[in-house]
Each structure stands twice: as C-alpha cells, then as structure tokens.
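Q: What does the assembly look like in three dimensions?
Context provided by user:
Components: two
Sequences:
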Amino acid sequence: MSEVVDAPVKPAFEPASLHPMRGEDGEIIQIRQFNLWYGASQALFDNNFSIERGLVTALIGPSGCGKSTLLRCFNRMNDLIDNLRVTGKIVLDNADIFAPNIDVIALRKRMGMVFQKPNPFPMSIYENVVYPLRIDGVRSKSRLDETCERALKDAGLWDEAKDRLESSALGLSGGQQQRLCIARAIAGDPEVLLLDEPCSALDPIATAKIEELIDELRGKYTVIIVTHNMQQAVRVSDNTAFMYLGRLIEYGDTNTVFENPQRPRTHDYVTGRFG
Amino acid sequence: MDNVTTDQAAIRPIDAPSAVVRRSPATALSARGEPFMWALGAALTIGIVMVIGFLLFVFWNGLVTFIPKPVAVVTLRSGAMVAGEPTRPELYRLSPDAIKALPPAEAAKVAVNGGYGHRTLYRIGNYDLYNEDFRWVSDHDVDKIDYPEEMVFIERLEWGVFVGRIRSVKIGDRDLANPTPKDPALVAAHKEARARWQTIRRIERDLIGRVNHDLEVLRLDVRRAEIKHGPASTQAEKARLAEAAQIPSLKSEYDRLTGEAVRLNSIAQLNTVTLADVTGKEKVLPLSSLVRFYPANNLSFFDKVSIYLSRWGEFLSAEPREANTEGGVLPAIFGTVAMTLLMVLVVAPMGVITALYLREYAKQGRLVSIVRISVNNLAGVPSIVYGVFGLGFFAYGIGAHIDDLFFPERLPAPTFGTGGILWSALTLALLTVPVVIVATEEALSAVPRSMREGSLACGASKWQTIKNIVLPRAMPGIMTGIILAMARGAGEVAPLMLVGVVKLAPTLPFDGYFPFVHLERSFMHLGFHIYDVGFQSRNSEAGKPMVFVTTCLLIAVITFLNLAAIVIRSRLKRQFAGNQF
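A: Here is the predicted structure of the complete assembly.
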C-alpha cells in the first residue's frame, strides 16, 4: 500500500526556516517530501516540516486541506483505507514509519489518538482507561489501578470519575467522554498525542476544560492538534502549521503565524478573509 | 440589494395572504400520504388478526381437549343404544334413499332444510368391541338422550377408551359388585395395581435393560478383540474368558428379574375388573390396565379440574402409548429441545465465524459477492433437500466411516451410520446458517467505525479489536440471528424425517449408560409427532385433539426457547444503552 520513494530532500521552500523555533529537545517527527494519494486524487503535496518534541503543534487550515489526513499518517490510521499511496518520508526517531519493516502496532502504541467525536468503548470507565494495557496482556491489578489513576488524573477526570470507575463510560457527558478518551490515549504511555479536532463536538465549557488539559500535557507529551478553531490554536499551541489544498503554506511559532504571517494566504486565513 | 429584500420581509404583516400554490384535494391527500398510511395500517391489521386468530384457534382447541366431557346414552328409534362423548354436530346432505326411509314428519323437516339434516359425532370408544372409535348419529334417528350417572369413562393401556359401566371388580379373592368409580376399595386397589404395573415396567425396562446392556458390552468386547487381533489371538481368548466368567451371574440375575416380573404379573392377573358397554356386552380387564376412570356424568367442578390437571400432567411427563394418540409426549419435548440446543451450539460458531471472515477479513470483491449471494440462496433451498443431503452426507457418508473406524464390532448394526440426533442437528444447522451469517454481517457492519478506530489507535491488533470491541458490540444483532435460526430450526420437520426423527424412540439420547450422551440415537420431535398423530394414526378423529394439544405445546416450547434468547439479548443490549451523540 505504501510506496516509499527515497528521493533526495530538495524542498521547494523551507517554511521551518521562516521563523525561529523554540523546541529545546529537538525534533521528534520529520516530514520529508511527503505526498499522499487517495486513488488517483492527490491529497497531500510535498510536505516538509518537523514537529518539535514536548510542544503543542496546531495544524490549521480550511476544510479539505489535508490536515486530518496528515495527522492520520502519523499513526498510520490511514492504513484502513484502500487505494492509499504515499511517497516521501515521515521519520520518527530516525525510522521511516512507512517503511515495510515497521511494526504498525508498536507505532500506534507510541502515538495516542483522540478523535473528533468521543468514542468510549461500551465498557466501564476503568476498562476504557486500561484498554491499552489489557491488549498488552497486563494482568497485574496494582499496575492497572495505578495506570488508571495516573491517566485519569492527567486527563483531569479523576475527581469526577473516581467513585464510579465500574459504571459504564457511556453514562458520562460528552466532555467527560472526550477527557476519558484522552485518558485512554495516555494510559498506554505514548510519546505523541494526536488530537483530531477534539473539541468540535463539545460545548464551550467542555472545550475550555480540554484546552486547559492540553496546556497541562505540554512538556509531558508532544501534542499535535488539528483544529478548525483559530482562537483555539492561538490559545493552546506553541507552533502552528497552516495548510491549504494539501500544501503546507506556513509553519512556525504560533504568535508569529497569527500576528505577523509571512505569506499573504496565511494572512487572509488568520484574519478571516476566507476559510 | 440584499438589505432591501430583508427590509421588505421585515415590514410585511405576519398574517398577510401569501401566494400559496393551491392543490386539488386529491393531490393534497396523496401528498400528505394518508391513503398510503391507511394501506399500511390495514396490512398490519390483517397480519395481526391472522396471527392472533391462528394462535387463539390452536390454543383454544388445545386447552379444551383435556376437559372431561359428559357421556350421553342415545336411544335410537330402532331400539339400539349408543353411548359416548358428543364430539361435534354437523349439517349433512341426506341421500334420496335415506330420505325415503324416513318417517313422513322427519322427511318434511329435511325437505324444509333443503335436503340437509343434522347429525352428531359421538366418541363411543370400545374399539375392541365395535371396531370403531367414533359414530355419527343422525338427529332424526334419535328417540331420546340420557346422561345416566353410572356411565363411566375409562382410559386404558390398550384399545383406546372404554365407555360403559363397571359390573364388578375382583380384588384378590374379594368381589365388589356394581361398585361406583369412587368406591374407596376400588380406588385403593387401582392405585396399588398401577404401582405394581410401574414396578413391573421398571424391572422389564431398567433392570433387565441393564443386564442386557452388560451382556451386549461383553459381546462387543469379544468382537472388538477378534476384529483387532484376530479370532485366534490371546486378546480375543481373554475377552471370551472374561465374557464366559460373567455370563452366569448375569444370566442368573436375568432369571431372577424375569421371575419377579412373572410373579408380579400373576398377582396383577388376580385383580380384574369386569366392564359392560351400554348394551351389556362384557369385557374383563386386569385392573392395572386402567389408566384413569371417572363417572363422566357425576363430576363436581373440583373433580373436573383434577382430571384436567392429571391429564396435562400425564401429557407432559409420560411416554406416549396407543400409537402416540394417548399418553404423554415427554420424549418428544426432550428431543425437540435437545436437538434445537445442539443445533444452536453448531450453527452459532459456524455462522459467526463465516460472517466474521466475509465482513472483516476477506477482500471485498466479486468472489465475496458470489459467496454472499450463494449463502443467501441457500436459505431458499427446500428443506427436504437438506434432509436428503444430511442423510447422504452425514449419516451414510461420515457416519458410515465413523462406524468403520470406531465401532466395527457393532456392524452390521449401524451406530452413527444412520439417522440420529447429531446428524439432525447438523442438518438443521446447515439449513439455518444463512440466517445467522446474514444477521451477523449486518451486526458487524453496524458497529461504528469510531469504535474500531479507537481500539486500533490504542495499538490493538485487528483481531484484538474484533474480539474486544466489535464482537461484543455486535452481539445483540448476532443473537437476533440465532433467535431466528432457532425459531426456524425448532419448527422444521421435513428434513428431520430423513435424518433421525422416529415415531417412537425407545430410549432418550441421554441416559445412565456410559458415555451418558448418545448423539447417534434417533429421537422424537414434537413437529413430527403432530404429523404422525394427525395423519398416520389408526383414527385421525381420535388424533385430532392431540394434534391441537401438541401444536400448542410446540408453539410454547419454541416461544420459551426464543424468550430465553431474547432475555440474553436484552441483557447484552443494556450494556450499550447510553447517551451516544
């Protein structure tokens, strides 16, 4: 399915060089010359940029610009789609994640993912959170309990859920369900957290809580968030990538991208001229 | 420009007449869809009325069958007497000769009715005396109808019911002349005789059966050793010696039991009852051969209730007698339930695994489409074809090979090489597997994509996702398929007639002999029982009430099985009830 072309890296332009980067621990994911096709139609064109470790990176852009597609490449959720073809590289710790010898399951364990709509499993809250451990065959009750508590605390759900761990997760409100999904995503101890418009199905109060949570997760995990909401990107992210029609237009420090964009199209988008 | 239109809309009064397109009333009616709705309602009503009507008809007829009815003694104009339970009246056309033979007054009545006369069917019983169980009596032949209190309705072990009087009873060396059916001495003696009869039956069936079984096991041991090691081998010799060593003790046990049975039988012969029909013809029977007797015209409400319940008790807990037209259907209930559950055990994994492969793993393409269409078409194959296939493939194919490999010592008597409950369950599993496959595929595809993605994103493999998320979530839908399959399978008769159902199975598929479960045995089935009683018995009129009762019971058994499955399904469903938005 994945076709890797080992072409020499020769980007059309280097957006990362437009702005100074703040990451102290360096880059965790490098995207190089990355192209993607759904059947005959190309969805991503020649993307080149790097995600910095420990920071929150926002992917913004109008609908259909390929930001969710790109996010789903990081943990290869796109594998579920037939007729998908990629060229170029996405490198995680010196390994191309589209290389044929890559263990997709291990890759996904390094990347927690939270989806647009909360998708808790029809199980108890406890079982939802420890699901990544269960599939690893962890039996130790103390380890499961410990992980459950840590993940729920990290996700800011512990105080609300600690007395009802055995009740069904479907009884939680939408915002709680989404925080539960975040807890589930971080229970497996990933390095990267992929958030695919995590607040689009939530009300403003639940959104505020999630944003607060993302703020607290900064530093512990590398967070990549896809969002339609530009204010949200400003509030939560350190770096912002603006994408348009499958191409990366501008990438850099969030404040700079929003306040002093270098490209006219970015300027038009962040000021609300289109999108 | 935009602003102008907005302003105009704002200043227009709310109730100003707007330019609405008027429709003709007929168009408006059809646009609102009422005629279509009425048609839907009518169709639903017809469906419900048919189902409820059918159920009421079956249940009413089934429930009234066991109510004791009065016995009428009809004196005909010719002086002959007929005694029996009035069963049903009927209007019939008299032949011209019959009309000519009538007295003028009656002939006039028939002429007024356009050549039709009334007649009544009486259940006269006494088949051994009259060679018929039922008799039509025309109303114009009747002189008078009485309901004498001493008329007794007797259910016997042989020859069906007896309608008449009890002349005398001999209990040992004591005689009771003209006893009433409620005479305490008679009731006590009858009870004792029935207990003795039960003991004799137990000796003959269970104890002597055990001895015969042991003898057969020894014979098979010898035969097996001979086949395996040759007739002259030391092993065969050893087996023969073991058999010879045990035979005398078994033989003496056999003789002792037979002697006991003979002794009890001779006691039973001393207790007899002399019955007389309405014309005075006598019949002497052992007291133990009477199952139940009651004064049909002299019953209190309590008596009637107790007879009714005792008949239901016998029906549900006893074995059939009188070519299935009397007695109980316990083996048939047992066979139906056991076969259906066995079928579910086979069809559920088979259907679910097939559907899982087709939906989750197979590459969707032309081949999978063809497989899917073929599976759906399988559901349309006549069930008798499955029966023929089951007989040919399972019984004569696989079964014969099993016999050759594992039971050569029993040949030429087949073990698995003939119809049995296992082959029946497998045949019905094949018949119902399309239902399970289709339902499971539907249920699997209804599992939200977000659930699968959530699990995969956690690092679960495909199989872990299916096992932990998809299957539990699809379980209610799968259960629906299993319920449908069960309903279809439990009511199926035609294929079973070829692969294992028999009119009368002497032994159940489960008993106290090792290995306790005998899936190769043929069995009885309520559906076949209905067919057998209704259409294969000596007297279809006598079988008719039993057909209704058995149908009632079959519907009840299937309903019970389905209810059990539905309860399980609703438990599963409750897990997924939640605010999913």
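Follow-up: Chain A has a mean pLDDT of 83.
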